[in-house]
Amino acid sequence: MFGKIIGTGSCVPEHRVSNQELSGFLETNDAWIRERTGIGSRRVVDGERPEDLALAAAKNALSAARISAEELDMIVVSTLSSNHMLPSVSCLVQRGLGAKRAMCFDLNAACTGFLAAYNTMQAYINLGIVKTGLVVGAEGLSRITDWSDRSSCILFGDGAGAAVLRSDPEAEFATVMHADGEKGDALTCEFAYALEEGYPGTVLPVAPEEKKRRTLIRMNGQEVFRFAIRQVPACIQELLAQENRELDSVDWFLLHQANARIIEGAAKRLGAPIEKFPMNLAEYGNTSSASIPILLDELVRDGKIRRGQRLILAGFGGGLTWGATKVTF
Ligand code: COA
Fold first, then answer.
1. Residue 111 a catalytic site member
2. For residue 74, how far is its CA from the centre of ligand 1 (angstroms)?
3. Rounded distance from Cα 165 to ligand 1 centre (Å)
4. Cα separation, 71 vs 102, whole angstroms
5. Dihedral pair phi/psi, residue 122, rounded to 5°
6. Cβ–ligand 1 contact at 281 (below 6 Å)
7. Fewest Cβ atoms nearer than 10 Å: which of 70, 131, 166, 272?
8. What digits encode the pLDDT tens for the residues 25-43?
9. Is 217 within 8 Å of 187 (Cβ atoms)?
């Protein structure tokens, strides 16, 4: 038995930063950013912490599912940008919800994180350990973004999305997941404390400039672009072949919202109509593990995704990691 999504929720910070505003302190412009990425603005935390966004998204998902927090058996949060090492964001969400029965843990698979969390929840449900679970993707990327690097800071935004799953005899599940650690240097970010002088793991003192470089997101944009445009359609095809399904049996493809050109390229390579690849990155940019659940929640609330429809969620990003998961809504 697998889990069915019975409620979705999301939360983005109020503070909106337009491309225009970025061009006030960077050598860039709205036309360049829109043309190369499809992004028009992003939301940036202004006092909120990623765990606050996670909790708000979780509350919205519980209220859509019409269940109480005490019904949750497990909470899994995917994040790479939380304020806390301890306690985990999932434990903070549990506390905020009053979900006393739920076991909790966080995981990090970068922008593939929501898929990793969703798949993990399905595995626990399938083992009979969990009946009702909450999956959250939450990020405060703006705090680890290098706002002086015009080739990366234009991309990222903050937000959180959540889904409640409940075991259901009619629920279907299938996934393919991949990683290539050899190419991990294409997208990096180190913990600041690990580069402090005197920290046990630090062999040599790290100069302040070098420290800034390593503790903010570093990206080889072209390498990530080439990787995504090849691997995303390939893993969707792999999932369809594994399931013996035709492309046109899928109603919606919800891809990680990194770049409109990557999503358009994937649609073209697959030979699927672009209308089946909804996007909201013009408004939010790339919110890493939050992008898929935010998009899912918006489409559900708009009545575009309806009960019984077949979805493929596809994530890709740091690690490098990538994957695709089948969801029957
Ligand atoms: N505004 C204006 N010019 C910019 C710019 C910006 N924000 N960022 C870079 N440029 C310049 C570069 O300096 C370069 O100038 P040069 O030719 O004088 O050297 C030129 O634009 C082209 O740079 P390039 O890196 O080749 O651009 P690109 O077409 O590859 O676009 C990205 C850059 C980052 C938008 C693109 O590579 C990308 O989206 N990659 C995927 C990244 C991603 O999705 N990461 C997250 C995955 S989860």
1. yes
2. 40
3. 38
4. 8
5. -60, -40
6. no
7. 70
8. 999 999 999 999 999 999 9
9. yes
Nearest CA to ligand 1 atom 20: 151
Q: Write down the catalytic residue from 11, 91, 104, 111.
A: 111
Q: Which residue in this structure is represented by tokens 């046109």? A: 248
**CA atoms within 13 Å, Cβ hemisphere of 144:** 25
Contact 242, 95 (CB under 8 A): no
Q: What is the pTM of this model?
A: 0.96
Locate the DSSP E strands across 22-147: 41-43, 74-78, 103-107, 132-140
Measured CA distances, 150 to 24, 147, 226 (Å): 12, 7, 19
187 phi/psi in degrees, rounded to 5: -150, 110
For residue 197, pLDDT beyond 80: no
Closest-CA residue, ligand 1 atom 40, reads: 221
> Is the CB of 221 within 6 Å of ligand 1?
yes
Separation of alpha carbons 170 and 162, rounded Å: 21
